[in-house]
């Protein structure tokens, strides 16, 4: 299926690794121009170079110009970081057609141990930062008649996990905001806003939690990996490529009627009917 998004411009945050990288790769494989962001420069530049190779393949297969890729190393949860992204992209709320918000998740732990500062950091990273990014781009998208905003949240929004108190709380705040925004006047102007809820995807972040679990229980990493995957009906973790494929589809005109949704990608782990 031609997703008809070649030549569009996308901002992909947290794109050097994991799910963000999977989304960036799926978009560039459709000929989308990218501004990608992550905190550390070296892995971001490495990813940018790999994405350029994907773009070159797309260009040679289609006979069209190679997609452009700009990389901005900064912390997207800070005002300075967002300024750096807008500056690289050509001014506040540059003409992005597509935006994926994403940043690292908050730490795990018992809520009794978290301070107000911990909560403020989590709310800033996983609620206020996406809202600030949306604020900068959404009206331009509506004025131009096309926009796709996707936020990576978590399956913990649908099925909260006690040790993820910071994530459960902060991401639920974003989810409530998005529910209202998606149904506002922007919906009649070609802009959709949806959340992607990952279950367990094979990324550095998941690996870090598996390593921690192995150390805590004294089991081998391989045992912990196998035991966790065995709990998933699909009997495996998801891949960033699978995640990116849904992202790219939701960015297409074909997905114009999917708006204000929380899309769970978890291999069937969530046990409910809805
Ligand atoms: P990852 O650690 O593999 O990759 C995270 C990416 O985001 C990296 O490129 C990193 O540099 C970048 N990043 C992190 N903080 C940033 C910041 N402040 N500013 C700019 N870039 C930043 O993680 P992942 O597994 O891809 O997870 C992405 C998001 O999805 C996280 O919020 C995570 O909590 C959430 N999530 C992941 C899973 C999973 O199974 N992997 C499950 C549920 C939720």
Keywords:
alpha/beta, 8 helices, binds nicotinamide-adenine-dinucleotide, single chain, globular, 274 residues
> Which blocks of ≥5 consecutive residues have pLDDT under 50?
none
**Small molecules bound:** nicotinamide-adenine-dinucleotide
State the helical fraction: 40-55%
Query: What structural category arises from helix and sheet content?
Result: alpha/beta
The outline comes out as globular
Spatial order of strands in the largest sheet: 3-2-1-4-5-6-7
Number of helices: 8
User: β content, as a range?
Assistant: 5-15%
Give the C-alpha Rg: 18 Å
End-to-end Cα distance:
28 Å
**Average pLDDT number:** 96
Order of helices and strands: EHEHEHEHEHEHHHE
Can you describe what's shown?
It is built from 8 helices and 7 strands, in the order E-H-E-H-E-H-E-H-E-H-E-H-H-H-E. The chain has 274 residues and is an alpha/beta fold. Strands 3-2-1-4-5-6-7 form a 7-stranded parallel sheet, with helices on both faces. Helix 1 runs parallel beside helix 2, helix 4 runs parallel beside helix 5 and helix 6 crosses helix 7. The protein starts with 8 loop residues before the first strand and ends in a 9-residue tail after the last strand. The structure holds nicotinamide-adenine-dinucleotide. The site of nicotinamide-adenine-dinucleotide has 29 residues, from helix 1, strand 2 and helix 6.
